[in-house]
Amino acid sequence: MTTVRAEQDTVAWTVEEGIAWVSLNRPEKRNCMSPALNRQMMRVLDELEFRDDVGVLVLGGEGSAWSAGMDLKEYFRETEARGLGAVRQAQRESYGWWRRLRWYQKPTIAMVNGWCFGGAYGPLFGCDLAFAAEEAQFGLSEINWGILPGGGASKIAVELLSFRNAMYHAMMGENIDGRKAAEWGLVNEALPLAELKKRVTEVACVLMEKNPIALKATKDAVRRVREMTFDNAEDYLVRAQEAANSFDNDGRKEGIRQFIDEKRYKPGLGAYDKSKA
Ligand code: ACO
Fold first, then answer.
1. What residue range is the signal peptide (predicted)?
2. From the alpha carbon of 153, which atom of ligand 1 is closest?
């Protein structure tokens, strides 16, 4: 029996103790990304971005997959049948939420529980950090069905992998497991599936102790400077810090005060107590 899932049910989410747990929710289709899912994900990201009760957003997948990439039927075949306008719209909707993730206000973590193919590299790279199950499988499978890794996937491969590994990964259409993905730099860490959520929760809790303005400035800075000359980066970072100060001068002053005057903590070993700011 074919499950017809309503658009609003293609993404599941809940907020618990500061963490927004968002999941691609088409497990019966291995969470492949249909136009409906792409639209719904943008709505969910909109809903959560500036909520005071959200400190970190975690992107996971329901069932055995994180995401089996683009929906070959709904995103490609059916959309192409409706002409160029429909194709461009579908591209805007998918690239749109991946871009949104790259510059999201809150820190984001990809929690890759299972299959991760092709187009799924978009949200994988969109998330600031990524943790995978050792059992997860990653692949640029585009070549296996006759296209190039588009939607940014080729770019992401060379951003995250060495040239040789990127080329091998893109040309061979072979999968790598979570452990190899960590070794290659596609994710931060791999650990047994049973321990994945606990580790992600731990990381999210550490992030939530940090100054949120500084975190946003930091994640943007790390992405921006990748494409700058050294001098441009130096200048950008001065301006970015000054801009951050105008939003949150007190936090930074408090961070200095608790270290220098109160000797309450050591920045080299942990974060200052935000609740005192
Ligand atoms: N597009 C459309 N439907 C998909 C996709 C997809 N990317 N992935 C899975 N499905 C559907 C299957 O057609 C099947 O539908 P049905 O129940 O109506 O027959 C259902 O999801 C379950 O899939 P199975 O293949 O039966 O699941 P299984 O667990 O055996 O295999 C696997 C999982 C390996 C992920 C397999 O589904 C697969 O190879 N999917 C395609 C992966 C891929 O190459 N994606 C495209 C990447 S390139 C890009 O994104 C541009």
1. none
2. 51
Question: Residue 54: what pLDDT?
Answer: 98
The tens digit of pLDDT for each residue in 250-264 reads 888 899 999 999 999
- The answer on pLDDT for 226 being more than 60 is yes
Determine, yes or no, domain membership for 2. no
Domain total for the chain?
2
Checking if the pLDDT of 122 tops 60, the result is yes
Residues 203 and 216 in one domain: no
For the CA of 69, the closest atom of ligand 1 is 50
User: Ligand 1 atom 35: the closest Cα is on which residue?
Assistant: 68
Task: Tell me the pTM.
Answer: 0.95
Output the pLDDT for position 246.
Answer: 86
Q: Residue 7 C-alpha to ligand 1 middle, in angstroms? A: 19
Query: Using CB atoms within 10 A of its CB, is residue 135 exposed (0-12), middle (13-18) or buried (19+)?
Result: middle
Q: How far apart are the CA of 6 and the centre of ligand 1, in A? A: 19
Asked if 40 and 136 sit in the same domain, the reply is yes
Which ligand 1 atom sits closest to the C-alpha of 65?
Answer: 35
Nearest-CA neighbor of 24 among 56, 54, 55, 68? Answer: 68
Task: Give yes or no for residue 32 CB within 6 A of ligand 1.
Answer: yes
Instruction: From 174, 208, 242, give the residue that closes a domain.
Output: 208
Please check the confidence at residue 1 and state whether its pLDDT lies above 80. Answer: no
> Sheet holding 19-24: strands in order across?
11-16, 19-24, 56-61, 108-112, 129-133, 189-191
- pLDDT (0 to 100) of residue 2: 59
What tokens appear for 239 in the block? 């301006």
Q: Which residues constitute the domain of residue 249?
A: 212-276
Could you tell me if 10 and 40 are in contact, meaning their C-beta atoms sit under 8 angstroms apart? Answer: yes
Q: Does the CB atom of residue 72 touch ligand 1 within 6 A?
A: yes
* Mean local confidence (pLDDT), 16-45: 98
Residue 6 has pLDDT above 90, yes or no: yes
Residue type for position 117: F
